[in-house]
């Protein structure tokens, strides 16, 4: 199911790709020198560069999706500024103090300070209240963090698909232009024919090059997102274990 945000990204990518394509066509048609015209055509500056336009759309859409979730993860780091848990050395927490931490977190969420971190802290406090077991609380916290991370990774499965799809589109463009070049071979003996054939062959391999280049850039953005995701969840887990679970003392 497509969300409104995703549909918005698709619309932006479509408009941007079409604009880039027509700017390249305009640049190629207005170029006086063969070198500059060749440059624009390499990036799809011809009416036969529709595959380039599709590649640009896929690339822009993928970048927008990744940046959206990367923005979400960076926003979650603000939860650490709320000082939800005590960080003083040698401090221990009683069950009543754990319950008080949960109430403070609930109060913060009511005032609009809701983050993944607040949810994890609240769940850890609830789990400890239910069974009074530090070991089970740690186990449940680990499972919840892993599930949350897997869910966010899954939401960007589209990015992984687009990285592969862009490369595939490049090869499809190459095949289409090669087929077009073969169709022009009957003009090889004419003076006008050879430049047309050469141009078509050049564009065919340009498509693959552009696709692989943009795929590499998209892959970089995607792996930066995964790095930010790993950093956030690792920091979250350490923060809760060090400042909540490890401090709980239940007198017998």
UniProtKB/TrEMBL annotation:
Species this protein is from: Dyadobacter fermentans (strain ATCC 700827 / DSM 18053 / CIP 107007 / KCTC 52180 / NS114)
Lineage per the UniProt record: Bacteria, Pseudomonadati, Bacteroidota, Cytophagia, Cytophagales
GO CC annotations, alphabetized: plasma membrane
InterPro entries tied to this protein: MotA_ExbB_proton_chnl
Keywords: Cell membrane, Membrane, Protein transport, Transmembrane, Transmembrane helix, Transport
Every MotA/TolQ/ExbB proton channel domain range: 119-229
Keyword Lipid biosynthesis included in the entry's annotation: no
Designated name of the protein: MotA/TolQ/ExbB proton channel domain-containing protein
Location in the cell: Cell membrane; Membrane
Protein family according to the UniProt entry: Belongs to the exbB/tolQ family.
Keyword Phosphoprotein: no
Membrane topology: Multi-pass membrane protein
Transmembrane segments: 7-27, 47-67, 161-188, 208-226
GO annotation (BP), single: protein transport
């Amino acid at each position: 199911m497509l969300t409104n945000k995703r549909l918005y990204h698709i619309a932006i990518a479509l408009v941007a790709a079409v604009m880039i394509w027509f700017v390249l066509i305009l640049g190629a048609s207005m170029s006086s020198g063969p070198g500059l015209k060749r440059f624009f055509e390499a990036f799809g500056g011809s009416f036969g560069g529709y595959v380039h336009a599709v590649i640009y759309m896929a690339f822009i859409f993928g970048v927008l999706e990744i940046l959206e979730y990367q923005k979400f993860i960076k926003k979650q780091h603000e939860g650490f500024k709320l000082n939800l848990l005590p960080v003083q050395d040698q401090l221990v927490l009683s069950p009543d103090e754990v319950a008080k931490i949960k109430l403070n977190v609930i109060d913060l969420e009511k005032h609009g300070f809701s983050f993944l971190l607040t949810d994890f802290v609240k769940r850890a406090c609830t789990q400890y209240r239910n069974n009074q077991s530090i070991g089970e609380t740690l186990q449940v916290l680990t499972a919840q963090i892993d599930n949350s991370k897997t869910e966010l990774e899954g939401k960007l499965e589209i990015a992984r698909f687009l990285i592969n799809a862009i490369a595939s589109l490049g090869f499809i463009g190459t095949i289409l232009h090669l087929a077009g070049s073969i169709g022009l071979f009957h003009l090889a003996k004419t003076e006008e024919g050879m430049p047309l054939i050469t141009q078509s062959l050049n564009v065919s391999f340009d498509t693959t090059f552009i696709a692989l280049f943009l795929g590499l850039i998209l892959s970089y953005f995607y792996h930066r997102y995964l790095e930010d995701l790993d950093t956030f969840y690792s920091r979250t887990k350490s923060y809760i274990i060090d400042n909540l679970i490890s401090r709980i003392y239940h007198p017998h």
